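Anyone up for a design puzzle?
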């Protein structure tokens, strides 16, 4: 029987949960805003992806994060021990010749007790979503110093930074150069299918772990990835992996978590295909550098449009301009400036444009409360009309105000 993607409504007993309000985490925003490229919406409000060598489906209700971790055929959750296996890669321009690359594959499942397994999974999620950081406190802090940010943050609550595996983050972000999120997602999936260890199949969809540095550094990887339409990025991926292993060693990326931000940033920039923006993305999204502020043309435009950052007629972002814009936002937002940047970046994506146009629940509540006050005033007869654009209009009416005003609010699907 073909395994299916889990859906909370039909398989509640197979799910685990933890308290997590949507004001602290919104999956639809956080998993689709260009941080990680491993998550897809497999059912309405259900996100399936690979994290920590496991396949997960996540969903949420107002105050609860629900998660399901898929198991092997033996119905035991996969453990973390690995073995090495050879995977054939088709070499470009050589249809009959195959080359071998070593990748890490799962051993037979490591048996763990149910309690141990659930405790480990919950800790993995807490670490991945960095749930120890209180977004409510940060939003209040940023909003008090930045009125524009407060307007955006009231709509885009629940956007938070992921703490990704540094190898996955670096090699995924290298693929983003001159690229769109949807295409990067396809490229990362192709990379995993070519070089990553297979984990499981769900409804014809194969899930693979992210490739190891050893697999990425193989001399035949560039040809393999060029055959998968990676273009010039194929060389950057292979050369960066090789340089890390030959010059620094397999633990180098994780060790950068323990050095100051600028040191980590400069170290990453020594790798092929890694400029300032890629380095800052990796610092922010996987190396615990909360003050790293990635600057691209989107953030440059935001700085000029919304923060009156001086426009000196420059056509491109030089290293000097990059540092100045980053310092501008760090001075405004403080030690978690990178987290604040992610909220504005997310709000500027076209896919989330509808969120900014929809009436905000807090505004609707204010209008409803105002209506009640007006209704209680003798002789003041008012009704509320919800316009097509979502705005709320108060109009006088001769009808009896004792009737309950209805306010239909359409929940629009994001993305």
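Challenge accepted. My sequence:
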């Amino acid at each position: 029987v073909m395994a299916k993607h889990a859906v909370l409504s039909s398989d509640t007993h197979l799910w685990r949960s933890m308290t997590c309000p949507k004001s602290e985490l919104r999956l639809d925003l956080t998993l689709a805003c260009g941080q990680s490229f491993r998550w897809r919406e497999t059912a309405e409000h259900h996100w399936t992806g690979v994290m920590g060598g496991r396949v997960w489906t996540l969903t949420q209700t107002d105050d609860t994060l629900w998660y399901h971790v898929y198991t092997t055929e033996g119905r035991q959750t996969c453990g973390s021990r690995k073995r090495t296996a050879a995977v054939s890669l088709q070499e470009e321009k050589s249809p009959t010749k195959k080359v071998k690359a070593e990748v890490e594959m799962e051993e037979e499942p490591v048996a763990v007790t149910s309690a141990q397994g659930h405790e480990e999974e919950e800790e993995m999620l807490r670490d991945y979503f960095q749930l120890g950081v209180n977004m409510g406190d940060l939003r209040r802090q940023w909003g008090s110093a930045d009125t524009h940010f407060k307007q955006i943050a009231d709509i885009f609550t629940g956007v938070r930074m992921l703490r990704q595996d540094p190898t996955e983050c670096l090699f995924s972000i290298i693929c983003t150069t001159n690229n769109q999120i949807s295409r990067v997602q396809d490229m990362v999936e192709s990379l995993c299918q070519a070089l990553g260890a297979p984990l499981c199949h769900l409804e014809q969809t194969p899930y693979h772990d992210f490739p190891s540095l050893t697999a990425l550094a193989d001399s035949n990887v560039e040809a393999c990835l060029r055959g998968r339409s990676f273009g010039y990025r194929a060389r950057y991926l292979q050369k960066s992996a090789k340089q890390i292993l030959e010059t620094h060693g397999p633990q180098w990326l994780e060790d950068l978590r323990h050095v100051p931000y600028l040191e980590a940033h400069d170290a990453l920039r020594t790798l092929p295909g890694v400029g300032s923006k890629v380095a800052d993305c990796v610092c922010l999204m996987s190396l615990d550098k909360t003050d790293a502020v990635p600057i691209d043309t989107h953030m440059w435009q935001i700085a000029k449009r919304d923060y009156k950052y001086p426009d000196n007629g420059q056509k491109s972002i030089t290293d000097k301009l990059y540092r100045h814009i980053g310092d501008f936002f760090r001075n405004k937002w403080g030690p978690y400036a990178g987290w604040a940047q992610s909220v504005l970046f997310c709000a500027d994506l076209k896919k989330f444009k509808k969120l900014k146009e929809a009436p905000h629940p807090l505004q609707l509540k204010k209008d409803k409360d105002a209506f009640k006050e007006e209704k209680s005033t003798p002789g003041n007869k008012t009704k509320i009309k919800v316009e097509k654009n979502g705005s709320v209009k108060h109009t006088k009416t001769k009808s009896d105000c004792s009737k309950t005003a209805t306010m239909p609010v359409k929940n629009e699907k994001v993305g």
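A detail worth pointing out: The chain has two domains: 12-132+162-289, 359-415.
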